[in-house]
Write a structure and sequence with these properties.
Layout lengths: L5 E7 L6 H9 L6 E6 L6 H13 L3 E5 L6 H14 L4 E4 L11 H9 L5 E5 L7 E2 L3 H18 L11 E4 H6 L10 H14 L3 E5 L2 E2 L10 H20 L7
Parallel strand pairs: 1-2, 1-4, 2-3, 5-8, 6-9
Antiparallel strand pairs: 4-7, 5-7
Helix pairs in contact: 5-8, 7-8
Amino acid sequence: MKPSDSIIIIPTYNEKENIEKIIRAIFALPKSFHILVIDDGSPDGTAAIVKKLISSEFEGQLFIEERSGKLGLGTAYIKGFKWALAHDYEYVFEMDADFSHDPNDVPRIYSACADEGYDVAIGSRYVTGVNVVNWPIGRVLMSYFASKYVRLVTGFKVHDTTAGFKCYRRKVLETIELDKIRFKGYAFQIEMKFTAFKIGFKIKEVPVIFVNRVEGVSKMNGGIFGEAFFGVMRLRLDGWLRKYPKIK
C-alpha cells in the first residue's frame, strides 16, 4: 500500500471498457494518488472488475462504494466527498472514467492546490480557447456557450463552469454545506464551483485538453442540460439572497 494525501473520485455506470485502464493509468503516475469508485449498480460488471483489482493488487489504494442504481452524478460525488473527509484526505478530485480527462493532467491540477495555494483547481477546456477533441460540433458549442451563459447570468468569472475535472482542498468540502447542494446532473458542477466562489475560496483554471470517449457510451442527455439552464437562474437568486458559510 502506498500512502497518499489525495483521493480521486470516479463515478461509474457501465464503464467495463475503461475502468481498469484508467485505474492503472492513475496508479502509474509518479505521485501516489488513491482512487474511490462510486458505482451505480452497473449491470455490465464494472464493480466486479474494481473489486478484483482491489483484492489482487491495490488493497489500501483503491476503494469502491456501490449504490443500487442510477441516482445522479451529484449525489455520487457528495457520497464520495463525505467518504473522503471521513478518511482524512487533504485533496479530493473529481474525474471521469472514460479518458476524456487525461490522467497525466492530474499532477498539474494537484500542484495548483498543493504547491500554489489555490483552494479549487479546475481542469479547464476553455481558459486558453476551446481545447476539445472529437466532440460533435453541436456539443462543443452547447458546452462552450453554456459556460458563457453561466458567466453572463451569475457574474462568475470562471471560463469552464461546467468542467468535471477538478481538485478541492479538504477545507472547501468541509465548509460547503454538502447536504444543501441541490442539483444532481450537469448543474451540480456549476453549483459546486459557484458556491466555493461565493464563500471566497481561491480558484484556478488549469488548461487541459478534453478528448471525447473512445469506448463506452456517453451518459449526457437533454434533461441534464435543461437542469443546468434553469438551475443557473436559481443560483443567481441564491447569490443575492442566500447567506453562505464563512471560511473557518
